[in-house]
Amino acid sequence: MVSSVRASLIAAFLLVAGNALGAPVCPTPKVMTFQVEGEIHRDVTGFTEGLEVHDGDFFESTGALGGGTRLMRIAPEGHVTVLNDAGQKYFGEGITFLNNRLYQLSWQDHKVFVYDQDFKLLRTMRNPRDGWGMTNDGHDLIFGDGSTQIYYVEPDNFTIKSAITVRRGADSVSNINELEYIDGKIYANIWMTRSIVRIDAKTGCIEAEADMTPLWSHITEAEQAYIASDDDYVLNGIAYDPATRLFTVTGKEWPMLFSGRFADR
To answer: Domains in the chain, please, with CATH?
Structure first.
């Protein structure tokens, strides 16, 4: 009996190890470009951690720097309304809308906040990991913790159901930040870089990568100087509007948002 159990455990270990080691190498990512089609200049900035489009407006979760952790609505003309201000109580991170609820992560506080349609706090869930970017596929919440992993979780209790490892070729990729899910693909910022990647939501393979440096040609010299004044003011924030099929991107404390389209070269 003991030897049989031991053999079964060894077999299971070898299967898991074999699957991990034997994962096929991802194809070389395509080069992706971003064509700017519009700009929004906002009247209140924020340390952008999460960005979403909902009912024609933009919604933003900010980290506890500058103005603190806030949940804000950004109208298409750029007017900002603060919906919730938690100050320094916790460090806000990614947000996503699912089933008439808004979910907001915190960074190292291990909290997930659930709001109703009027942005009133309904409840709080525990996240066993750090919180970075968040999105959803219509069924599960999808979030990252700054590692090479992206997790699929149960919206009712934040139980982790599965995970994928983000890979470029044979190498795993960490610092996966803001997330946006569209049709089986996850678009993601890579923290502290000017890259946005498109990830296969099943395999974790980076299929395409965009160098967003051309955005800087749309930013005035004064705005560039302001962004360059702090190393934390990096590119971060991806939202997608299915009505217009436009992506909107921004950065932490950036006074502008850019709308446009990604295309494979």
So the answer is: 30-264 (2.120.10.30)
Rounded distance between C-alpha atoms, residue 227 and residue 143, angstroms: 27
Average pLDDT rounded to a whole number, residues 111-137:
98
Rounded to the nearest integer, the mean pLDDT of the chain is 92
Angle among Cα 143, 149, 155 to the nearest 5 degrees reads 30
- 73-96 in b/e form (b: 16+ CB < 10 A) is bbeeebebeebbebeeebbbbbbb
18-67 pLDDT, tens digit each: 344 557 899 999 999 999 999 999 999 999 999 999 999 999 999 998 88
Residue labelled with tokens 């996850």: 186
- Distance set, CA 179 to CA 144, 150, 198, 238, 243 (Å): 8, 10, 10, 7, 19
Contact 247, 259 (CB under 8 A): yes
Identify the CA nearest to 179 among candidates 99, 236, 258: 236
Helix (H) or strand (E) holding 41: strand 30-41
Find how far residue 122's CA is from the centre of its chain: 23
Of the candidates 30, 28, 38, the one whose C-alpha atom is nearest the C-alpha of residue 239 is: 38
